[in-house]
Amino acid sequence: MSDSYKIVGQSVRKKDVEDKVRGKSKFGADIKMPGMLHAKVLRSAYAHALIKNIDTGKAEAMPGVAAVITSKNMRGTNRFGIIVKDEPALAEEKVRCFGDAVAVVAAETEEIALAALKQIKVDYEELPAVFSMEEAMQEDAPKVHQKNILMTDKIRKGNAEEALKKCAVIISQTYTTQMLEHSYIEPEAGIAYLDGDVVVIKVATQNPHYDRKDVAANLALPQNQVRIIQVPTGGGFGGKLDISVQIHLALLAQKTGRPVRMVYDREESFRASSKRHPFIIEYTTGATKEGLIQAIKVKLICDTGAYASYGPATIKRALVHATGPYEVPHVSVESYCVYTNNPRAGAMRGFGVPQVAFAHESQMDELARQAGISPFEVRKKNALKIGAVTATGQELKGSVGLVETLDEVNTGLAQYLKERVGEGA
Fold first, then answer.
1. Torsion angles phi and psi, residue 314, rounded to 5
2. How many other CB atoms are found less than 10 A from the CB of residue 343?
3. Are 324 and 361 in contact (CB under 8 A)?
4. d(CA 122, CA 70)
5. Which pLDDT belongs to residue 421?
6. Residue pair 164/278 in contact by the 8 Å Cβ criterion
7. CA-to-CA distance for 80 and 380, rounded, in angstroms?
8. pLDDT digits (tens, 9 = 90+) for 331-347
9. Is 233 helix (H, G, I), strand (E, B) or coil?
């Protein structure tokens, strides 16, 4: 056996476990440097508004204020985004959601930085806003960007419309899922400083390589002059894949030449962080009277908020997984990822699959009820097995363990109930 296989099956001690247990780990909010400045962000109080003017004069004149930056001071692209570069680091002609960053301040203390924010005067012209997915898809809806439908996609297998006409059991329901906040223990935090001609950012992040690309583009620097150091991160769950403090810290460090630290409080984290995508799912299942699925027809709509973030990836995965772990001969799924003036929705554990799983598993429970069989039996009857073909045309030739898993769960549940009854529960 080669040395590379000796580790398989062995318990491996995590490198960071001792520091975390002993409270020695330095998280993003723990990092401080001599002579550092403190940064704060001025955020929009409007969901949708034109920016007519920004007056930073009084803030810049305050004792203790080292820098005030708006979009006019940007050297680079002023755009970032993990898939679509559609979000400004600092809002330019308009804001698109409550909490959009409009200006950043660096000062000698947090108190001075917060006071300076109150001295920045922004002249807004409020615009009609759109907050529902259905409304955003209408032709006459207020436009968040040039268009409100970011992307569409579909899957077709067989002929779902014709197959549904022949089904003995038809189940049609509309499911909705809500926006969710990650609410990680550690809010967004980091510090930036100059190391020669290199901008160094120590930050709570899940995406250091992507961070470097966006920061470099915003600062008009080559990537080899930007260094991102991922410090121990106090919770992420996908929420720290998006840019938070990185660009603002880098801009301020570049301008002042001093270390700059920023830590969101919980309210700002709620306002500025990405969320789980809300979905509307129109789901129709057609089956035989014995509960064997013949066809599904699904329409998926997800709200990506004011900016794309991981929206295209989220709706793509929901589309692919709309049939669940079941073999369906006839499939018709269409999907829409929609801009609204809601907070940006991004990565959260599951990437669209938890939302659609709620729908297809609810359908399975109702199918079991109408077919007069158990929820376990209806799932085993329709489960993907070796040799099955998925909705996207993939033939499963390897391990497919759903049936075995269901059997184990059923056996374990029966044993648990038996023991509980024996205990008099």
1. -65, -45
2. 23
3. yes
4. 11
5. 79
6. no
7. 45
8. 999 999 999 999 999 99
9. coil
Give pLDDT tens digits for 389-403.
Answer: 999 999 999 889 999
Question: What is the token pair recorded at 185?
Answer: 């223990």
Backbone angles phi, psi at 286, to 5 degrees: -115, 135
Provide the residue count of the chain.
Answer: 425
Q: Region 162-191: what's the mean pLDDT? A: 97
The structure tokens 């806003």 sit at: 129
Q: Give one DSSP letter per residue of 182-250, joined into a string.
A: ---SS-SEEEEEEETTEEEEEE--S-HHHHHHHHHHHHT--GGGEEEEE---S--TTTTSS-SSHHHHH
Taking the C-alpha atoms of residue 171 and residue 293, their distance in angstroms, rounded to an integer, is 11
Strand order in the sheet with 169-177: 149-157, 330-339, 293-305, 279-287, 169-177
- DSSP letters, 273-322, are S-EEPPEEEEEEEEE-TTS-EEEEEEEEEEEEETS-TTHHHHHHHHHHTT
Amino acid letter, residue 229: I
| pLDDT, tens digit (0-9, with 9 covering 90-100), for 213-255 | 999 999 999 999 999 999 999 999 999 999 999 999 999 999 9
**DSSP code at position 257:** S
User: Could you please report the per-residue DSSP string of 73-93?
Assistant: G--S---B-SSS--B-SS--S
In terms of Cα–Cα distance, which of 186, 179, 140, 216 is closest to 309? Answer: 179
Cβ 339 vs Cβ 133: under 8 Å: no
